[in-house]
Amino acid sequence: MQETKSTDFKQQYVQPEWMAVLSCVLIFVGFVASRAFISIGMIGLVVSAVWRMGFIALFKHYFQRKELWVLAFFFVPVFYSGLYSANIEQWLNWVRIKLPYLVLPLAFAGLTQLTKKHITIILYSFLIVMLTSLIVVLANYALHFEAVTNSMLLGNAIAMPFSHIRYTLMLAFSFFLALYLSEEKERQLNHWLIASAVFLFIALHILAVRSGLLALYVGMLVYLIRWIILSKKYGLGFFFIATVAALPVLAYWLVPSFQNKIAHSFYDLQEMKAGVINYRYDAMRLVSMKAGLMVWGQDVLMGVGAGDLSAAMNDYYAQSYPQLDEQNRLLPHHQFIWVLASLGLLGLFQFLMAFYVPFFAIGNFRQWIFVVLHLILFTSFFTEHTLEEQIGTAFYLIFLLLFIQRFRTHA
Questions:
Q1: Domain tally for the chain?
Q2: Contact 156, 209 (CB under 8 A)
Q3: What domain range is 92 assigned to?
Q4: How many CA atoms lie within 13 A of 323 on its CB side?
Q5: What's the pTM value of the predicted model, to 2 decimals?
Q6: Do 228 and 238 touch, CB atoms closer than 8 A?
Q7: Can you tell me the distance from the alpha carbon of 206 to that of 216, in angstroms, rounded to the nearest whole number?
Q8: Residue 121 Cα to chain centre, angstroms
């Protein structure tokens, strides 16, 4: 009897899919606690896939699915730019950052037995990790409320895990994920999910990071338009849209951190008009975009090479903005300009193909959460090089691949 129970347990839980679930949870913890967990989780996903399918079958299945292998085009132009990059050390660093675009799609090609149950557990795990981290962030802010709020007038941000921009993008996605899960059949969790969404919405205004708020409001517009079309309640729907549009004004009067962030943005704009750039983050971002475009002009088709982007940007700053301190000489804070400068038009074409083919493949664009995920990333591309860093890459890939699997088998 004991042996039968042990066998049942192994058959049910000692499976590569459960290892994949654990690996995803490790990645999520890594988003807010330790980057090492992200790498360990990625390795775990690959091991899970090989365990399930074996190497030969894994590669065969991978090349049969264009929505997976096309993601390699995020990696390919970076890789061949090594042929014309003088700084091989820098080039190898960018190759390392882009490796997940090869490794994770390959892993998910082997996780064909990842069921709706597995994916739902993963989605809830992400939501719980983000909510837990958010409570810690807000508690720390509350303990130093006056000092941190005042420091926001100087352009500082509330302390958040790693990149505050990518963190708030993930919080914005968590808001929509809570709404998405609330539409599932597990009605007993609806109150908790709606409460979580409200909490995330309020918290994003307290944290007052513009990229996260832009992603939130663009996503809400899509969500409301979808609701209007499905319900055909046009009057009520447009009332909701008007209400949402008024919420930032309300937040300005009610949330001190949000008010101070807006005030600093106007101050930065005035300083920029006066020609002050040093330590003015908005001005430095705009200058980095201009610098990136000028660097792109050195080789319009191929770019300067991933390994030489930093050197080319520094040369431009030294000639055109010598007054900028070295730590303020940013790489292009614009995803598309980053790609153009380093990889040229050919690289941008491959980037866009990698980004949009999975979006349209097998009808993924019909799923509203998939649309919102891409909009969150897309809106950030105009002020941030979102995918040129471990956390941004892992966040995008994990949810892209999870939803591809979910919609492919449970449409």
A1: 1
A2: no
A3: 2-409
A4: 8
A5: 0.92
A6: yes
A7: 13
A8: 20
CA distance 178 to 359: 21
* Burial degree of 11 (CB within 10 A; 0-12, 13-18, 19+): exposed
Query: Helix, strand, or coil here: 90?
Result: helix
Q: pLDDT per residue over 260-311, tens digit each? A: 888 877 777 787 777 777 777 888 899 999 999 999 999 999 999 999 999 9
In three-state form (DSSP H/G/I as H, E/B as E, the rest C), the secondary structure along 206-233 is HHCCHHHHHHHHHHHHHHHHHHHHHHCC
Residues 394 and 31 sit within 8 Å (Cβ to Cβ): yes
Torsion, Cα 373 376 382 387, to 10 degrees, reads -50
Identify how many contiguous H helices and E strands the chain contains and give both numbers: 20, 0
**Identity of the amino acid at 150:** N
What would the two tokens of residue 151 be? 């420091």
Burial degree of 408 (CB within 10 A; 0-12, 13-18, 19+): middle
Name the E strands within 177-333.
none
Lowest mean pLDDT, pick from 14-18, 175-179, 404-408: 14-18
